[in-house]
Design a protein that fits this description.
It is built from eight helices and two strands. Helices cover 72% and strands 2% of the residues. The chain has one domain (3-212). The protein is elongated. It has 218 residues and is mainly alpha-helical. Strands 1-2 form a two-stranded antiparallel sheet.
């Protein structure tokens, strides 16, 4: 894909991201609803983090910043894991309180034994998305210094033996448009996946308030 074609793709993808951003705002309103509860603060902070990632991702995608868009995909998967953590915890309140206090959640007891480690959360999420572990490991290479940095910097001309090109601070070569598109597609996918997880909390909240309102009318 040429850079001109990629620019058109990025514009279309950013429009999609704006729609997904609006969906997050609607979800936050549903989670808060009529009664502000502790878990709503937790989930809304999680939503705000995702919204901030969307805002940053759009700029970085247009700038063709492969390292940073890869890192943001990894952060969005972390949002999914943190949304799932209360569902998997022996006591969900422990998760809410740990995050507010700045404590680690990997010491919190999980249902069925063990603790809420990243591995356990990834295993749980992989029941619903069989690619999440692979994407998690791949994008972690953007967080830690790895072949991702090498790929973005070093290239070997196909027509010249024993030569390499080092690209430091210049625009990426067109060969990187493919990986950039993969990141954009993965990011949108895990936003939607995240929103499906959050919808479970919104549904619980609606049911909770309906039951409370019904009891008040008896």
């Amino acid at each position: 894909m040429t850079n001109e074609e990629f620019a058109a793709y990025a514009d279309a993808k950013c429009e999609e991201l704006k729609q997904l951003r609006r969906s997050y705002i609607q979800l936050s309103a549903a989670i808060i609803s009529e009664t502000l509860m502790q878990q709503a603060l937790y989930y809304c902070a999680n939503i705000n983090r995702a919204v901030q990632l969307i805002d940053g991702f759009q700029t970085l995608l247009r700038e063709r910043n492969l390292i940073c868009v890869s890192a943001i995909v990894r952060l969005q998967i972390d949002n999914c894991a943190r949304t799932a953590a209360p569902l998997l915890a022996e006591n969900e309140q422990d998760v809410f309180e740990a995050v507010v206090k700045g404590d680690r959640i990997d010491k919190i007891k999980a249902k069925g034994g063990g603790t809420l480690t990243d591995a356990k959360l990834a295993d749980f999420l992989s029941r619903y998305d069989d690619q999440i572990k692979t994407v998690y490991q791949s994008t972690s290479g953007a967080i830690h210094f790895s072949e991702k940095a090498f790929y973005a910097c070093v290239s070997a001309p196909t027509d010249k033996e024993y030569q390499i090109t080092l690209n430091i601070g210049n625009p990426l070569e067109e060969k990187c448009n493919g990986p950039l598109i993969e990141c954009a597609e993965a990011f949108c996918h895990y936003i939607r996946f995240h929103q499906r997880l959050l919808s479970l909390e919104a549904e619980w909240k609606a049911d909770f308030e309906k039951r409370n309102n019904d009891s008040l009318t008896l």
